[in-house]
Amino acid sequence: MTSELNKLSVSEARDMLRKREVSSREITRACLDRIAEVEPRLSAFITVSEREALEQADAADRRLGSGDAPAMCGIPIALKDIYCTRGVRTTCASKILENFVPPFDATVIAKLRAEGAVFLGKTNMDEFAMGSSTENSAFGPTRNPYDLERVAGGSSGGSAAAVAADECLASLGTDTGGSIREPASFCGVVGIKPTYSRVSRYGVIAYASSLDQVGPFAKTVRDAAILLRALAGVDSHDSTCSARPVPDYEKALTGDVKGLRIGVPKEYFVEGMEREVKIAVRAALKHYESLGARLVDISLPHTPYAIGCYYLVATAEASANLARYDGVRYGFRAESENTDELYNRSRAKGFGAEVKRRIMLGTFALSAGYYDAYYLKAQKVRTLIRRDFERAFTNCDVIVVPVAPATAFRLGEKTADPLTMYLSDIFTISVNLAGLPGMSIPCGYDGDGLPIGMQMIGPAFSEETIFRTGDAYERSRAQAKRPTKV
Amino acid sequence: MAIGLEKYEAVIGLEVHAQLLTRSKLFCGCSTAFGAPPNGNVCPVCMGMPGVLPVLNRQAVELAVRAGIAAHSEIAPHSIFDRKSYFYPDLPKGYQISQYETPVCKGGYVELPAKDGEEPKRIRLVRIHLEEDAGKNIHEADGSLVDFNRSGVPLVEIVSEPDIRSADEAGAYLRALHAILRYADISDARMEEGSMRCDVNVSVRPRGTEKLGVKSEIKNLNSFRFVEKAIEFEVSRQIEILEAGGKIAQETHLWDPVREETRPMRSKEFAHDYRYFPEPDLPPLRIPPDLVEAVKSTMPEMPAERRARYVRDYTLSPYEADVLVAEREVADYFEAALPGLKNRKAAANWVMTEVLRAIRESAKPLAEAAPKPAETGSLLRMVEAQKISLNAAKTAFAAMCKSGKGAEATVAELGLAQVSDEAAIAEVCDKVIAAHPKELAEYRGGRDKLFGFFVGQAMKAMGGKANPKVINELLKKKLAG
After folding, report:
1. Predicted confidence band of residue A96 (pLDDT cuts 50, 70, 90)
2. What ipTM is given for this predicted complex?
3. Mapping DSSP to helix (H, G, I), strand (E, B) and coil, where does residue A204 land?
4. Does residue A80 have an active-site annotation?
5. d(C-alpha A343, C-alpha A75), whole Å
């Protein structure tokens, strides 16, 4: 029995823990054993905090024994290495933060800690969340549990792979242009990027502040709903965080989608997409019709401009956000004779190639004489993209589209050509620009046995509808989860 | 300084940074108290740790609104914060959160004290905006250190139009601004402690022309006096260059207070492209009209109004009024001493000489350097009632400053009460005349100058406490025989 505890879902584990059928230490031990078993092949983690995890598990067991059992109490999860964790190294997969130990917890970490969650460790990612494959990590790439020669997706590849490989019950990622949804799709797990402002960003290392959002990876939609409820809510440390009350998302999981209007934008079923992806998503849409939902043809005409817009807005913000890594106060410091050298050498040696590329792109976009043509224009396009969605949602309740044009690609396949890599996010990026919630859930496998994901997008703060839509599919058509190959 | 000034006119604009009187920093809860040990007032936010976010201090916003109201500015109902990017070790995030295109206050003016017989001049403002301060680099023999206690301290930057025409006027503007900031409890505006700082933009142009000349910016000015000296130096320097047929370079200069000259900074030190863009971590700043009204209702009488009232109601000269209103506590002291006094001009003179001297000589704040204003009022009423002489009052005041005792008690203790009793004084006068028959004969023989001798003898005999007016009258009669 114990050997299988790491395969539990969060909701199963929660119920068993509350009934005292199992201890948090047993589940945590099972996860740690699984981590020890598969990590040499998978590389989903940068840091495993075994001692702290077991202490947290024991504390959770004492708390559960006293009858105090918040939803996440005793549940072992993994954290993308972008969350500041007090006393535990936080690298953002960068050499420049290789030995950085934060003196404080991110707000979501503090919330989960207060609920008694168990933190197994910090997962691999693209450096500073810049990438779509977790190949841009100073610690080497994470591999896809369904094919170790393929990428796990990115930037939250480690968190997605860890859930898929049952190294943990669930995990946290962040999503700036698809960094939760794309790896969720590639690894065959559920991942949601909530509405911008739904979850506090305090203590989450910033990439692009107006786009970054925190979200969970889970094995089921229900688990994602449980986690989001624990994460969401107002934060006095984040003035962009919404004060809207947080619903009990689990209550939205009725299984009923009768009368639901599902928007199908023509711009998301394009030439060049992998045929099997298109077929799988079409089949899922048909299934929704059989459940009583109605399909509505819609248009999001500014979709083709989303990637260009994103790479101006995101890199501009990143160029300022990453200016603090200067070798003065913390992190990597190169040997130098004077201040200019200190900056130049620390940043030249501390940052990886993709991070430098984006800092330069953003610096250029904000430079005197170029600001209007690039940054300002991109902000205007962003408004148009937002309006596309507003218009679409007058005719539908939720939009269902593929997450990515293709399934997981081979390691190294796209690293030589950044533009091809950027196109992996073509179906996810608009959602960040518009600040909307989007969820990826598995909807089949391609001929190579690789998972295919579909994405459901809703209006701002419509997470309940999204969860209901995803859950209805999952409970009525879920194919048996295929075993991973790790 | 006068070289060329008949031919050229100086055009000067000032950028003043003032630290707001908040208890905590602009974007975090750290204390703003002066004098903490290095890096004693810091947290992850003001140290620019990864992942931290700013949260705006409401009190700082209210103080910026106060500054806007005090300077007759328009308060923007909607403004945003921007990031100003540059690398410097004392700037932890690599950018400063400031306001660029939409400052919290637009326009406005500062009124300078009127020169005798002239209308008061107004220096118009471009804007007042909120921003955070940086830390401080400390260079030592074996390396450099950074103290982040100031990092994130709230500032307003007050930018004037180029309305200033001389070093004196720049000084007057700074003194007027200083008074406004202190009156309204916006900033303690101490240049020595760095809670008020000033950068100067200077250019010159031929008199009678409108087109602005090429300007230079002067930094590192930490006293009013340095600002004035630096402007004088810079104006002369620019005129000399133009007169020699040269061109002014647009550059930034540092004031060297030891050599009393400005010298250009290396171009690298200021050739910045700050790459401003809107701060995504802060929502737009909205200031509803009711907040502006609420702040307005708590504004005290400002120095320009007070100055006008003193001239109008107390018949003080503009100069006297100006000296009194320069510091709010001095003007408050003056007014608190007034009740029951008929001669307000005399009271004004007393405050300007005796009270200000007490502050200067003790180097203490007013509340510790001088007696309570009611006691000074009481002392001055004794002078008006001729119970003591003006000289005796000065003696008493000096003693009161040290002892902290009241006016009545001090006058009694030192035996300074004036004798006005005619019978007593007459008796002394008779004795003095009787004791100096030779002088009496000479006086009566026409040596009028000896009158002073008799007054002196009588005053001496009475220990200096006799009412001089009474002595004078009695002696005149008695000596005449």
Report:
1. very high
2. 0.96
3. strand
4. yes
5. 42
